[in-house]
Amino acid sequence: MGLPEERGRTGSREQEEAGAQSRVQSWSPPPEVTRSAHVPSLQRYRELHRRSVEEPREFWGDIAKEFYWKTSCPGPFLQYNFDVTKGKIFIEWMKGATTNICYNVLDRIVHEKKLGDKIAFYWEGNEPEETTQITYRELLMQVCRFSNVLQKQGIRKGDRVAIYMPMIPELVVAMLACARLGALHSIVFAGFSAESLCERILDSSCSLLITTDAFYRGEKLVNLKELADEALEKCREKGFPVRCCIVVKHLGRAEMGTSDSPSQSPPIKRPCPDVQGKLKEKPKRIWPQISWNQEIDLWWHELMQKAEDECEPEWCDAEDPLFILYTSGSTGKPKASICGVVHTVGGYMLYVATTFKYVFDFHPEDVFWCTADIGWITGHSYVTYGPLANGATSVLFEGIPTYPDVSRLWSIVDKYKVTKFYTAPTAIRLLMKFGDEPVTRHSRASLQVLGTVGEPINPEAWLWYHRVVGAQRCSIVDTFWQTETGGHMLTPLPGATPMKPGSATFPFFGVSPAILNESGEELEGEAEGYLVFKQPWPGIMRTVYGNHERFEATYFKKFPGYYVTGDGCRRDQDGYYWITGRIDDMLNVSGHLLSTAEVESALVEHEAIAEAAVVGHPHPVKGECLYCFVTLCDGYIFSPTLIEELKKQIREKIGPIATPDYIQNAPGLPKTRSGKIMRRVLRKIAQNDHDLGDTSTVADPTVISQLFNHRCLTIQ
Question: How far is 273 from 292, CA to CA, in rounded Å?
Answer without folding.
Answer: 23
